[in-house]
Amino acid sequence: MQDMIPINRRTIRWLPILILSLFNTFAISGKPKREAAPTIPLSSSDSVRVWCRDSSTVMNDADQELIRKDMESLSSDLPRIREHLELNYETTGQLAILLVEIARARDLQSVGVLTKVLLNNPRAINRAESAEAIGYIEAYHKDRSAMPALIQALDDSITDVQFNAARALVDMGDTSYCIEILAMLARGENKEEWTADWDGYMGLEAMPEEMIIEQKAQFRDGMQRKSIQLLHRLETSKARSILSDLE
After folding, report:
1. Taking residues 35-61, what's their average pLDDT?
2. What angle do CA 120, 101, 142 make, to 5 degrees?
3. CB-facing half-sphere around the CA of 27: CA atoms within 13 A
């Protein structure tokens, strides 16, 4: 079938999020009613392919053109998205669609509200995806304004948030603050205790117990493997020493 999305772990992770987000409410219980989330068209398969690829990959001219088209097509929606996130950055609902579209648009003006989501949102999945979006945007614009928030997020209580913050820092050129988290993950220290918003990512509550265990193990393996890859990208003496110890 033409224009299929390449099936990889990162793409699979997003599919249930995008579907579930269409049905989630964005109101915070006990607080004044928030406005409805802006209606944003789902990404085309080509756009998702470019957005979901590893940010360390050098993009060709066709990929750059897709990004340019995304930035143009989404420009009229961005003010409403930013306004909605400003009102709802503490929501317990999932913000995945809005975060994906901001990242696709490489919207530098949204970095401020993304840091609010990263540091204040009660849902780990929203914090993790905010860190990832910040990394894409800041790396694209060669901006480092969100670095203090990402460094703070390295101390998040959820491993997945820590990893995404570290990866974003690598994308932005950091070689020092990210090293401790990446070293811990690359070594697999206390691996069975690594955490993520499991229900947010995969809807694990509906799966058999043995499948839940398998999915969590695969997710943790993925974080470990990607952390090793990120250490290779750092090309520092400390990173090389950590990698040498793993051999």
Report:
1. 45
2. 80
3. 8
Nearest to 218 by CA among 69, 8, 46: 8
What residues does each domain of the chain span?
9-246
- H or E element that contains 202: helix 198-202
125 closest CA partner among 195, 193, 197, 25: 197
The CATH number given to 9-246 is 1.25.10
pTM of the entire predicted model? 0.76
CB 28 within 8 A of CB 88: yes
| Amino acid, res. 9 | R
What pLDDT, in 10s, does the model give residues 50-78? 333 344 445 566 666 777 776 777 788 89
CB 82 within 8 A of CB 137: no
DSSP 3-58: TPPP--HHHHHHHHHHHHHTT---PPTTSPPPPPPP--PPPPHHHHHHHHS-TTSP
2-23 burial: b if 16+ Cβ within 10 Å, else e: eeebeeeeebebbebbeebbee
> Which is it for the CA torsion 92, 219, 55, 48, positive or negative?
negative
User: In this structure, what token pair is assigned to residue 109?
Assistant: 């003006």
Beta strands in 18-158, from DSSP E residues, in sequence order: none
